[in-house]
Design brief:
Strands 1-2-3-4 form a 4-stranded antiparallel β-sheet. Strands 5-7-8-6 form a 4-stranded mixed β-sheet, with helices on one face. 51% of the residues lie in helices and 19% in strands. It contains 7 helices and 8 strands. Helix 4 runs antiparallel to helix 5. The protein folds into 3 domains: 63 residues, no CATH class; 63 residues; 103 residues, PH-domain like, CATH 2.30.29. With 253 residues, it is of the alpha+beta class. The mean pLDDT is 81.
Length: 253
């Protein structure tokens, strides 16, 4: 069997590097053309949507670019003095759990990669890169959660659920908001219900039902019709009280 000449691999590598640099230049140009008045996260999303036509691929590219952004961004919240902002990570001790997962991934990544190295260097490197990617994702996702609390305005509820998705809810479309413990067991398996909790085993505190269903994209870009959202917040009582007040105010107006 004829061996592939070294010149072929060098040419292929140069071609891939040139293609990568070309794509980066297109992304940078597209980013500069976005509206400077919107948050950086929204500018990144807009840039990717304009450059990548496939919705699922665009979702993954956006997530990875946001992960890189949050890895180097400050951990503190933006607009930390904003009055109507509600965190969702403190009561469940999510920070400690993320640290524990990262510690396990470090041990597992180094140990398994060392074991695989004697069998296949390629497999060892692939496993190590995937482990580092997962660590980067966990850190970026956690910093995104800290920096983007649930925000309540006179007309909307808006929050970015880490690196996974974002949601905007019009207060005029809220049919009711109540404790999440009332209907959760019956609703949690419904396809038109979205559960916004950081942990799988966490029971949500709040149930928000809509007059008209809204469309939500999941973490891989698929769209889901949603009639209810369940979520957990650190300041749940204050949030529910303020939402009810604003909903009643909007109905009167």
């Amino acid at each position: 069997m004829m061996a592939i000449p070294m010149e072929f691999w060098i040419g292929l590598e140069v071609l891939l590097v040139c293609f990568g640099l070309w794509r980066v230049s297109r992304f940078v140009k597209g980013y500069r053309m976005t509206d400077r008045g919107i948050p950086i996260e929204d500018r990144i999303e807009e840039m990717v949507v304009n450059q990548v036509k496939n919705k699922i691929l665009a979702t993954f590219v956006t997530r990875d670019l946001l992960m890189i952004y949050y890895l180097f961004a400050k951990s503190k919240k933006r607009n930390i003095e904003m009055k109507d902002a509600y965190s969702l990570h403190k009561n469940v001790g999510y920070g400690g759990m993320v640290f524990a997962f990262i510690f396990v991934l470090l041990l597992e990544g180094v140990g398994v990669s060392y074991f695989l190295h004697s069998w296949s260097k390629v497999a060892a490197w692939i496993h190590l890169v995937l482990s580092l990617y997962m660590i980067g994702f966990l850190i970026g996702d956690f910093k995104a959660i800290i920096r983007n609390p649930v925000r309540l305005s006179q007309e909307t509820i808006y929050f970015r659920f880490g690196l996974r998705m974002k949601v905007k809810i019009l207060l005029s479309n809220i049919e009711g908001i109540q404790s999440g413990r009332i209907n959760y067991e019956n609703d949690k398996k419904r396809k038109d219900v979205w559960v916004a909790t950081l942990l799988e085993f966490e029971n949500p505190d709040i149930e928000i039902a809509f007059k008209e269903p809204i469309m939500i994209k999941d973490g891989i870009g698929r769209e889901h019709i949603t009639r209810k959202i369940y979520l957990s917040l650190d300041e749940k009582d204050e949030f529910m009280r303020n939402v009810n007040t604003l909903v009643l105010k909007n109905e009167v107006v």
